[in-house]
Design brief:
Number of helices of chain B: 15
Number of strands of chain B: 2
CATH superfamily of chain B: Formate dehydrogenase/DMSO reductase domain
Largest interface: A-B, 60 and 61 residues
Strand order of the largest sheet of chain A: 12-1-13
Largest sheet of chain B: 2 strands, antiparallel
Shape of chain B: globular
Largest sheet of chain A: 3 strands, mixed
Helix content of chain B: 55-70%
Number of helices of chain A: 6
Distance between the termini of chain B: 34 Å
Oligomer: heterodimer
Bound molecules: iron/sulfur cluster
Structural class of chain A: alpha+beta
């Protein structure tokens, strides 16, 4: 997947769409949108404030960009390496999934993931009234339970890259819901796909490439400058 | 049961002299009260765990940003105590430190108790404790946690075997003098010490690598982690054995020779120096550069940061103060300086464990708002946190207290049953009948433990 940070306006639609289709309880966010300075994937700049949508810098030299972050689907995923029971595993096509029936809830993967995208079921999650509104049924990969509308308490969950949808040839729901078309989904192994082209020619970059996790999510850097020149 | 053992163990009821009989009865009461207190604490712990099982880990103060808490740092602390106790006990044998040999059985007993408690400490930390067998059914060998479980198991078995052999040897030695059976067991004792030393070092190194290999958290990701863990283990383990030995001296009828005290002091001083040196070297490496993730973590800990109370505990209360107590001649001569220094050194090591685990999580992973989701809903606050916060709940305190109570219970029972301070390996003369002056010094103290028990009973 490639995310174009030039297009992202920080509307959180992808985050809310993700929450709905995956029935994430209150306070759970598999996908979130960080407020950053342009092209700051690592924290070279201290945040201007602890609130979202606050620009960086001092007026009139202010700048602002957004960075939507969900599981980066790492090729060399620390979460897969540390999981003591192989509950977190990487599928052949690169999707990293959690087996809700095997996870022992040690949370080592949460300590190991550099992107802070994993959510633990501390108790029975609170849900808005109205019942299940998302996929609504269990989903298995090789017999392993990788999605359930209500995850049991005591296990870890995270973005599944909508395996239910991509296995049927659809794009993940965040990609479909983004009103600005900032998200592009495709096969990085196919040199002629849009995503491969963006990585090759558009200069798309990974988050924290220095950590060697080799994510399958790339970001197109901000090309324009938002700073007001005096 | 050997007769040599009698002087060192708690008095048995039914002793011939009436005054001694009264004393023993009082002491017996004291022990009963002690057990009652321990059982109460353990019951509290069990109740807290049952509560946690019902509610889920939501009953704890951990959330997604600080996702490991008191269970994990107390686990690491107990593993350290365990490894340190065994390192101290086996170096007595490996390096031929005669003065420490009387403490080897106490060291191994404490090591066995600590590793059991540490292993149990992981269970309440699991979200799905009843799936724990998955660790053995589907082990993932690239996970340091699997290796840690493995070495904990090996180490537990080892310490139990070691304790049994040491006990047998001491008995054989006492019964038949330096006979063939004693000599044979003596060889086993030596071999076990040579196996025990590297096992203990490995135990704490693997525990260190749980944290040290993680690239995600700059605060953990240093090759210094394993050496630092080992030296802090020696420090806290020796300090714990020192405290236990001093308690045995107070409530039992053994006396620690000055030579033994000198070695204990030496172990504590040297390991404390190396410990502070390692921590300081790590700080300097982080301070020199300007790597944001490292500097923001260090700023939390250094004076002025919100976690600086740990810095003071580690460097002053558990660092300079015990060093002064053990090195300044006027203080060193005080009777209380050794136990005070040992206690403070343990406080310092515990502070280091808290600092290691909690600051690793508190330090923001992504330094951009809104930070990480908490995994919990609070109508009056954000569902996100940039800089983490952690306050253990009573459930967590209860479980940790219960397991600490279990440790005290194992040590008390082991001490009374196994006579661990009795004539120890090759050290008969050192722990023989106390010298006259020591005996007279201790005389007035003797009724106190009994008196304490009696006053509580009345
Ligand atoms: S982003 Fe985190 S959870 Fe996702 S694959 Fe990488 S390490 Fe695992
Ligand atoms: S919490 Fe579950 S998925 Fe994560 S490391 Fe532990 S067992 Fe694996």
């Amino acid at each position: 997947m490639v995310i174009d940070t030039n297009r992202c306006v920080g509307c959180w639609t992808c985050a809310v769409a993700c929450k709905e289709i995956n029935d994430e309880p209150l306070g759970y966010w598999w996908n979130r949108v960080l407020t950053t300075a342009p092209n700051q994937s690592t924290a070279a700049k201290a945040p201007a404030s602890e609130n979202i949508d606050v620009p960086y810098g001092v007026y009139p030299n202010v700048e602002l960009a957004y960075l939507p972050v969900a599981c980066q689907q790492c090729n060399d995923a620390p979460c897969v390496k540390v999981c003591p029971v192989q509950a977190t595993f990487r599928r052949e096509d690169g999707v990293v999934l959690v087996d809700y029936e095997r996870c022992i809830g040690c949370r080592y993967c949460m300590a190991a993931c550099p992107y802070g995208v994993r959510i633990f079921n501390w108790g029975d999650g609170e849900r808005a009234p109205g019942g299940v509104i998302g996929y609504g049924k269990d989903y298995r990969v090789d017999g392993r339970l990788v999605f359930a509308p209500v995850r049991p308490k005591g296990v870890v969950e995270k973005c599944t890259l909508c395996v239910e949808r991509i296995d049927e040839g659809q794009v993940p729901f965040c990609v479909e819901s983004c009103p600005l078309g900032a998200r592009v989904f495709g096969d990085l192994n196919d040199p002629s796909s849009d995503v491969s082209r963006l990585v090759r020619d558009g200069g798309a970059q990974q988050l924290h490439p220095e950590l060697g996790t080799d994510p399958n999510v790339y970001y197109l850097p901000v090309a324009r400058r938002v700073a007001a020149e005096s | 049961m050997s007769t040599v053992a009698v002087p060192s163990r708690a008095p048995r009821p039914g002793s011939p002299t009436p005054s001694a009989g009264a004393l023993q009865k009082a002491a017996h009461h004291g022990v009963r009260w002690w057990y009652a207190v321990l059982v109460a604490i353990m019951a509290w712990g069990l109740a807290a765990w049952i509560d946690e099982l019902n509610v889920g880990l939501a009953a704890t103060g951990m959330r997604d940003v600080v996702s490991w808490g008191i269970y994990i740092f107390t686990f690491a602390f107990f593993i350290g105590l365990s490894a340190g106790g065994l390192i101290m006990a086996s170096s007595a044998e490996v390096f031929g430190i005669k003065a420490l040999k009387p403490l080897s059985r106490l060291g191994v007993l404490s090591a066995a108790a600590c590793v059991s408690v540490a292993a149990l400490m992981i269970i309440p930390d699991l979200g799905q404790p009843f799936r724990i067998l998955n660790l053995f059914v589907h082990p993932n060998w690239s996970s340091p946690l699997v290796w840690d479980i493995l070495i904990i198991t090996v180490y537990f078995v080892f310490s139990v075997v070691d304790l049994t052999v040491l006990h047998r040897h001491a008995r054989a030695d006492a019964e038949e003098g330096h006979g063939t059976r004693a000599a044979r067991l003596r060889t086993v004792v030596r071999v076990l010490a040579y196996v025990g030393l590297p096992t203990a070092v490995l135990l704490h190194s693997v525990t260190a690598w749980i944290f040290g290999v993680q690239i995600a958290r700059a605060w953990w990701n240093t090759s210094l982690m394993a050496p630092l863990f080992v030296v802090s283990a020696v420090l806290s383990g020796t300090a714990l054995v020192t405290l236990l030995a001093l308690l045995a001296e107070r409530f039992g009828k053994v006396s620690l020779p000055e030579e033994t005290r000198r070695w204990l002091r030496g172990f504590i001083v040297v390991s404390l120096f190396i410990d502070l040196f390692f921590v300081g070297a790590d700080y300097i490496t982080m301070l020199w550069g300007n790597v944001p993730s490292e500097r923001s973590a260090l700023n939390l800990v250094l004076p002025g940061g919100s976690w600086s109370w740990l810095f003071w505990l580690e460097w002053i209360v558990g660092g300079l103060v015990p060093l002064a107590l053990l090195l300044v001649p006027r203080l060193r001569r005080q009777q209380w300086s050794l136990w005070a220094a040992a206690l403070l050194a343990m406080v310092g090591v515990y502070a280091f464990r808290i600092e290691l685990v909690v600051v690793g999580f508190v330090n923001p992973l992504t330094q951009f708002p809104p930070g990480n989701a908490l995994g919990t809903y609070n109508p009056s606050a954000s569902s996100f946190q940039l800089v983490g916060a952690y306050h253990p709940t009573w459930v967590e305190y209860g479980i940790v207290a219960g397991l600490a109570g279990l440790f005290a219970a194992i040590v008390t029972v082991g001490y009374r049953r196994l006579d661990v301070m009795g004539t120890a390996v090759g050290a008969g003369p050192l722990l023989g009948p106390p010298p006259a002056d020591a005996a007279s010094r201790r005389e007035p103290q003797l009724p106190e433990p009994g008196a304490l028990g009696a006053s509580v009973a009345s």
